[in-house]
C-alpha cells in the first residue's frame, strides 16, 4: 500500500512545524505529535530530531519541548550550532559570532580570540546595522574569507509577522565579500549524514519528516533518504507544485506518518 | 598618440573618488579636479556628473561640491533617485521607501500610499532589523514583488571604516522574496543612456571617467561608450587585472584625463 514506508530503521523529525507551532515566547504542540513521538520510541525505531533552530541552546530548546509534553532529550537533537562547533574545532577556526544572544553558550568552549572566520545564525534583533558592518569588516579583512551560516532559510513567521531569516543576511555578506557561505544545518548533506551516523542507519533505511519542501524534503532526498512533507507548519498548497522537489509522500501530519510507518513494520 | 581620446563630444564624470574624496561629513577635492571641471566647461564639451549617490538630495550634494569650489549645478547631475522617480511615475508605482532620511525629499511628489513596490537605497543607519523586516513584508505581500534598487554597490569606505552598501541589502531582499531587483543607477544601461540623451551625444562620442571598474567603466562600455579608470578614489592596483572589464585607458586622475582629451580636440 505505502511502498515508501517499507524497511525503515530510523526516523529524522523536523521540529518546528512538525512537533509544534511556534509563536510568541512559546508554542503549541501540533495535534497528535506528542503521542506520535512516544509511539516511535516504543516501536524501537531509531530517532533523531533534526532542527535548524539557532535562537536558543539545545538545552533551552529541549526544555521548551518537554514543557509541551514531548519525550525528547538533548542527545537526540541535531542542530546547527553544535555541528558548527565541530567544524570550527576540526579546522582550527576562531569565529566572530553574529548570532542570537541565547545561542552564544553553545560556543562557550570555542576560542574566539583574533577571529579567522564569521559564523552567522538567525541573530534576530542582533541583526543591527552596526553588527552587520562589523561582521562584514571581519570577513573582508581576511585573505580568504570564511563564512559559516547556520542554515539558509529565507524567512519565517512569528506572531507579530514575517521575519527575514539567516539566509537573507548570509546572502548580503556573500555578495559584499564575494564569497560563498558554507551552510551548516539543513539542507547541507553533512548535516543529515551526521544524524544518520549517530543513529547507525543507512540513508535508504531512513525517512525524514518535515514541513519545509526544500530544506527538509529536498535536503534529505539529496542524501538518499526518503522524505515526507507534512501539511502542517509552513506547508503551503503551492509546495505540491514545487519545480524541483517531490516528496516520497504527503501526510496530513506527523501522527498520520507514524501510523502508516508503524503499520508496515 | 591617445586614440581613445579622439572625436569626443561629451564627458560623463563620476563624482566621489573622481572629483573629491569623501570622509566624515564633508570631503576633500582631489588635486586638479576643480580646475579640470572648469577646463571641460570652457572647452565646449558636453558634461554631466553621473553619480550613484543616494545619501542626500541632489540639491544638498551639489551644494557640498560647490562649497569645495566645483562649477556644478543640479541640472548637470544624473543620480539614481530622480531616475527612480521617473520610472515610478511612468509605471504607476507607489513606493515603500527604504532610503536615507536625507534622500526622502527627492520622492516628495511621488504617491506613496498603499505601496506596490519597494525602493531601496543606501539607507545607512536606517538599515535596522525592523526596517528590513518591514520592507520585506511589503514585498512578500505583493502578488508580483517589484524591487527597485538605487545602485548595487557592495561596500564603501568612510572615515570610521568600511560599510555595507545598498547592493548587500538588495541581495538579502532578493533572496528572501525570490525576486530580482531592477537596478537604477550605474551600471544600469538606461541610466547611462539617459545621461547621453540629456547631452544629445551618441555613445561612441562620449567618455565616462570613473574610479569604479565595474559600475563606472564596465557599465559605460556596455553602452558603447569609452571609459577611463582614474587611479584615485576606490581604485586599487588589482583592478588592473579585473577578469571581465578592461578600461580604454588608465589615467592618474581627472586632471590628466582632461589634459589628454583637450589636446586631441
Word description of this protein:
Chains A, B: Residues 1-17 form the signal peptide. Chains A, B: One of its GO terms (molecular function) is phosphatase activity. Chains A, B: Belongs to the HAD-like hydrolase superfamily. The structure is a homodimer of 265-residue chains. Chain A is α/β, with parallel strands linked by helices and 265 residues long. Chain A folds into two domains: 3-52 and 186-263, 3-Layer(aba) Sandwich (Rossmann fold); 91-183, Rossmann fold, CATH 3.40.50.1000. Helices cover 33% and strands 21% of the residues of chain A. Chain A has helices spanning 33-43, 58-67, 80-91, 129-140, 166-177, 189-199, 213-222, 254-263; strands spanning 10-13, 20-23, 26-29, 46-50, 77-78, 95-98, 117-120, 147-150, 155-158, 161-164, 182-184, 206-210, 226-230, 249-251. A six-stranded parallel β-sheet of chain A has the order 5-4-1-12-13-14. In chain A, a hairpin with a 2-residue loop joins strand 9 and strand 10. In chain A, helix 1 (33-43) packs parallel to helix 8 and helix 4 (129-140) crosses helix 5. The two termini of chain A are 13 Å apart. The model of chain A has no long low-confidence stretch (mean pLDDT 95). The A-B interface holds A 124-125, 127-129, 132-133, 136-137, 140, 154-155, 161-165, 167-169, 171-178 and B 124-125, 127-129, 132-133, 136-137, 140, 154-155, 161-165, 167-169, 171-178.
